[in-house]
Design goal:
Length: 195
């Protein structure tokens, strides 16, 4: 099964679009026996900032869904709750700017698609080994956890190593978020080159 996943990962990398973006990235080495576990499993060490941002993201999606449902039944109550939600967003936004922003890792250049990623690491990572990865977009477009298998780790500039890996476990909604970000970046790039 591992070989089939690896082969499909190679073919996906060749046909899927990839983009470069500055992302907050954390990774940890994991053993083969947990590589297929849910990437959000509490046994993985998820950074505290990542958990906070992911929970806020899920809460926003739930609120928006409920507001849409309520809007069909009672527009006035939906409008009041929407204003209340906006007020909470302003409050949490200012707390985020004042407290959380200082705890976050500095975004790094990551090249990614919905099938895998490459990033700079401080040391070489053995080919074929597994890593647990968390990716956070600096503007909160997504917060994703995944497990991946390392395909290469080559020396690059500044004494760092360029490491490439394909996703082994990635939730379908997270894959869709990555695909959406890649598609939007391509559209933006196409529009820029057309003008």
């Amino acid at each position: 099964m591992e070989t089939l996943q690896h082969q499909s990962g190679i073919s996906e990398r060749r046909v899927m679009s990839r983009i470069d973006a500055a992302l907050r990235i954390n990774y940890q080495m994991i053993s083969d026996d947990v590589a297929l576990n849910d990437p959000y499993d509490p046994n993985f060490v998820l950074p505290r900032y990542f958990l906070l941002l992911a929970e806020l993201d899920q809460f926003d999606h739930a609120i928006n869904y409920e507001l849409e449902q309520l809007n069909e039944k009672d527009q006035q109550i939906a409008r009041i709750l929407s204003l209340f939600d906006q007020k909470l967003n302003l409050i949490t936004g200012s707390l985020y700017d004042a407290i959380v922003q200082s705890m976050l890792p500095i975004p790094k250049q990551v090249n990614f698609s919905e099938s895998g990623l490459s990033f700079s690491s401080d040391s070489a990572i053995a080919e074929g080994s597994y890593i647990h990865v968390t990716l956070s977009h600096p503007e909160n477009f997504f917060h994703i956890a995944a497990t991946a298998q390392v395909v290469y780790s080559k020396p690059s500039e500044n004494g760092l190593f360029r490491t490439g890996a394909y996703f082994v476990t990635l939730h379908p909604q997270d894959r869709a978020k990555l695909a959406q970000v890649v598609a939007e970046a391509e559209q933006s790039s196409t529009k820029s080159s057309a003008t």
